[in-house]
Specification:
There is one protein chain. The chain is mainly beta and 433 residues long. It has one domain: Beta Barrel (Porin). A 14-stranded antiparallel barrel has the order 1-3-4-5-6-7-8-10-11-12-13-14-15-16. It is elongated, with a radius of gyration of 22 Å. The chain starts with 12 loop residues before the first helix and ends with a strand. Belongs to the OmpP1/FadL family.
């Protein structure tokens, strides 16, 4: 476990800040969905270990998971890129309006997700850093509109992207014990198309679909603790507040509470055990409280009772809270090579009765298998980290998902099923000062 370094790197700060701003400019091009719409981890080393990182900080992105880790990774800079390849699909069966078909949501197939982290010692027992990363996102693009038989036209889909810029400060009050604070400066953007027919069910019909891209900003905090429980066992705790975001005014008729779309509270605990020389076994448990955010957590059912989209407490996507368990093994083969692999599982957040609206947002992957490596050339400050992750395809078959009858009380009955699988490939380069 690396202690913090005290020497100053003031002369390198402009480079780090410039790199962070460059990365921030790229990140809005990315969208991804793994645990619901949250990423399954941050930083290539964590991503190769199933997202484990609460008690196992490894690079400059540590604060994205647990800001106390800023005190344990030494002085370093990291920049990485993930290529994300999702496969989205929906199917409607038994519908009286003739919507029965299988729909391909892969109008865009490839996404690039950059991230950057920088950590430096501040003297004494303090360390500071900044992490810039995609917190989460969701994208669908159906060339054949699943809602066409209900009055929609054109291609259909949504695009949600969330960027965090997180400066962090960590304090080591005693050997082997660290606490940290990160400020989550959040930026998000959203667009929707081809769902204009929902305007007939909205409190603001002109702000439901095809309004281009809208943006909002907000601020939240993340707290963390990291400590040695024994000579071979380390524990960690982390908590992130709900991030209060500005409203999507262009989509005030789509999302509950006039376009309000906050980022939910999440928290977790982790352990890292040095099982033998060169071998580490680590595990995290994470809870994401999607139900806190009305636009995401409210059921679509109130729509059928006459509560319009966009209204206070109005209908949403019906997502439930999600608990994710992650387990990983890491082996230091030699001073120049580390190998890692892991598995994570979380009960996906979309109930079977909510699949009709979630054709737009099928964040239903439950299982991730990952593998990765870090190469440290002899005599070099550089280290190269790569990983691959597979989100095994998962389908949620609708149960009572499409209300029978005609609008406004129904949509012809039948069932909607949604499916998502995904592949991620990433590489990062780190510089240790």
């Amino acid at each position: 476990m690396t202690s913090i370094l005290s020497r100053s790197l003031t002369n390198r700060q402009p480079l780090a800040i410039a790199a962070a701003l460059a990365c921030a400019g790229l990140l809005p091009l990315a969208a991804h969905a793994t645990n619901g719409y949250f990423a399954h981890g941050y930083g290539a080393a964590s991503l190769g270990a199933a997202g484990v990182g609460i008690a196992l900080p490894q690079d400059g992105l540590a604060a994205a998971t647990n800001p106390a880790g800023t005190a344990r990774v030494g002085e370093r800079a990291d920049i990485g890129l993930t290529i994300f390849l999702p496969d989205r699909e929906a199917r409607i069966e038994g519908n009286a309006f003739g919507a029965d078909a299988t729909y391909d949501g892969n109008g865009r197939k490839t996404f690039a997700i950059p991230e950057i982290g920088y950590v430096r010692g501040l003297g004494g027992s303090l360390a500071g850093g900044i992490a810039v990363y995609g917190n989460g996102g969701m994208n669908t693009d159906y060339a054949s509109n699943p809602y066409a038989r209900f009055g929609a036209s054109g291609s259909a889909g949504v695009n949600l992207e969330q960027l965090f810029v997180s400066p962090s400060l960590a304090w080591t009050p005693a050997p082997g014990q660290s606490v940290g604070l990160a400020l989550n400066l959040a930026y998000q953007r959203f667009s929707a198309k081809g769902i204009g027919f929902f305007g007939g069910f909205s409190s603001d019909p002109s702000n439901v679909s095809d309004r281009g891209t809208d943006t909002s900003t907000g601020v939240g905090v993340r707290l963390g603790w990291l400590g040695n429980l024994s000579p071979t066992l380390q524990g960690g705790l982390t908590w992130a507040s709900k991030t209060d975001m500005g409203r999507f005014k262009k989509y005030a008729g789509l999302f509950a509470d006039q376009g309000d779309f906050d980022i939910p509270e999440n928290y977790g605990a982790g352990l890292a055990w040095q099982a033998a020389p060169g071998w580490t076994v680590a595990a995290d448990v994470q809870r994401i409280r999607y139900s806190q955010v009305g636009a995401v957590g409210n059921s679509l059912a109130p729509l059928l009772a006459g509560v319009p989209l966009g209204a206070a407490g109005g209908p949403g996507f019906g997502w439930r809270d999600m608990t994710v368990t992650k387990v990983a093994v890491q082996h230091t083969v030699s001073p120049t090579l580390t190998l890692r692999g892991g598995y994570s599982h979380g009960r996906q957040p979309v109930p079977a009765g909510e699949t009709f609206f979630n054709i737009l947002a099928p964040g239903v992957v439950q299982d991730h298998w990952t593998a990765g490596f870090t190469l440290k050339p002899v005599g070099s400050h550089l280290e190269w980290t790569g990983y691959a992750a597979l989100g095994r395809g998962h389908t949620v078959a609708g149960q009572g998902s499409i209300p029978p009858g005609n609008p406004p009380g129904g949509f012809g009955g039948g069932e909607a099923s949604v499916k998502l699988k995904e592949t991620l490939l990433g590489l990062s380069v780190g510089w240790k000062y």
